[in-house]
Amino acid sequence: MAKKKQESIVQPPYAFDVPWEELLEDKSFIKVFLSDVLENYVLKQRWYGGKASKLKYIELQEYFRIQQKDEVYYGLLLEVNFEEAFYQHYFLPIAFVSDESFAMKDRILPLSIKGQEGFIIDAVNLEAFRKLVFERIVHAEPNDTTRVSYHKSTDFSETAYVSSRFMGLEQSNTSIIINDTSVIKFFRRIYANKNPDYEMSQFLSERKGYKNTPSYQGSLSITDSENVNITIALMQELVPNQGDAWDYMLKELHKVFGNLEYKKINVNNLPKTEMFQRLAIKDVPPEIIDWVGLSIFLKLQALAKRTAEMHVALGDEFEDTSFTPTHFNGDYEVWLKNRLLYQFQNRLNTVENNLHRLEGLASDLANEFLERKNEIRKRFVNFDWTKLKGERIRVHGDYHLGQVLVKDDDFYLLDFEGEPESTIRDRKVKQPPLKDVAGMFRSFHYAIYATIFSNGKDYPYAQEDLFKAGEILYRYFIGVFLGTYVDLIQENNLNIGYSQERIFILEYCMLEKAVYELGYEMNSRPMWAVIPLEGIMSIINESN
């Protein structure tokens, strides 16, 4: 089969007697390009999300020009088809360069066009391409309705291009820093709809004036052959920062656990608090403040404030129906249960098939997870929308410490794309705001356990005692966050339900998130599966 495929393709050296501007109309070029050449290239890219599946073939769904005067690049929309009978779409911009030094990093195909030797490369590696996209956004006409459409925020002042560089290693997108003041994020995995990151960024910063997210500056989108708008790139302000909140939290927690020895603390004597008990800092016992310090609690209050302000902005819309708040109903309940029961079954299968890879506490918890599967499944089924009075709004959807930048004593929230496993439609479903809060609480839990796993040998305590201290700390983190968050939400009249409803939704969403995390850990680093498993069992045990 593979041999036959090769015979139908032009053999190297590849030469085409058409100008670059017409190359994509040459059927023999398309055959060559979509052959093993492109497959081998795509498989090696960090942004390619199909590594766990078997690639069948790649189709060129459509292409468009990204150009300025005589300078022409092509944007390709690729459909990657898999043996498992599903597909994904990717964006790949290409350029033709004759200078070999330009092609050293990311050459896709050597070829000759009209006698000119050169290479096709990923255009993002070319500064001229990055400059062109930036300038097209900066000089975009208002109400641009052409097929390839550039948009500039009314709040963004025109500025000249000076320089650009890659932001760093990313998984699913490619971000370019422009002039050290802006970031253009090229979406690699694309969807037949507006990207939620673009929608949310524009809505929050341009329409609602929310200051604690990078301000929206512009975008690039195309209208495909089926008249669907697809977001290709998003341009935002570059926020100077000291790194993300995950790294900040790990450093702080290392000090906190180091303090156990330094302050000669007996873990069994630490005062406890109830889960989801709302706390002001004055409610935190002096023994806890002495152990942990005041600074981290003040930071948690600041993060809670920014989170609440984001939700208030997202819930304060009565014209744009994609953002107007709504209530719980039967359709939402059916959607939620179907989604979660499917995901839960998937995780059960993963744990059963990989049980042999676990040992110690991870193995014990995994066996308990399997033994109590019906109890956990019942928790997902026990969602009765008629008992819930709160509102649903558009939410961040994948909210955790890694999605938050630390700037001095403040926080900036970013990356509104939603959960990578979810469909684009699911990411836009309105959810209880507490879904984001639950995601952040799971992130606190992760940070505490990651600190113990990574640095446990530095603390002269049994792992069991470190886990005990961590669980106590976790509840104070949640309490202080909730104290600030709920007060601010209620002051601004966003309805997140009464106390019992809030606790129900938090537990439900934290259980959902922990089950979601379990899949990643079982596939990537099984010994860390103890973190979501501990989270699942503590939620189940807490509410019994």
Tally of domains: 3
Instruction: Quickly name the level 1 CATH class of the largest domain.
Output: Alpha Beta
Largest sheet: 7 strands, mixed
**Number of distinct beta strands:** 17
Which architecture of the largest domain does the CATH hierarchy give at level 2? Alpha-Beta Complex
Write out the CATH superfamily name of the largest domain: Aminoglycoside phosphotransferase (APH), C-terminal lobe
Strand content: 15-25%
Distance between the termini: 58 Å
Number of helical elements: 16
Assign a percent range to the helix content: 40-55%
List the uncertain runs: 1-8
Computed Rg = 26 Å
Structural class label: alpha+beta
Mean pLDDT: 92
Query: What characteristic shape results from the CA principal axes?
Result: globular
Features:
single chain, 544 residues, alpha+beta, Phosphorylase Kinase, domain 1, Aminoglycoside 3'-phosphotransferase, Chain: A, domain 2, 3 domains, seven-stranded mixed beta sheet, six-stranded antiparallel beta sheet, 17 strands, globular, disordered N terminus
Can you describe this structure?
With 544 residues, the chain is of the alpha+beta class. The protein folds into three domains: 2-122, no CATH class; 128-237, Phosphorylase Kinase, domain 1 (2-Layer Sandwich), CATH 3.30.200; 273-542, Aminoglycoside phosphotransferase (APH), C-terminal lobe (Aminoglycoside 3'-phosphotransferase, Chain: A, domain 2, Alpha-Beta Complex). It has helices spanning 2-7, 27-33, 36-43, 127-138, 196-207, 245-262, 286-292, 295-314, 330-354, 360-371, 373-381, 424-427, 434-455, 463-491, 499-524, 530-542; strands spanning 15-16, 55-68, 71-82, 87-97, 107-113, 116-122, 148-152, 164-166, 173-178, 182-187, 189-190, 216-223, 229-237, 326-327, 391-392, 404-407, 410-413. A hairpin with a 6-residue loop joins strand 8 and strand 9 (173-178). Helix 9 (330-354) runs antiparallel to helix 11 (373-381) and helix 10 (360-371) packs across helix 16. Residues 1-8 have low confidence and may be disordered.
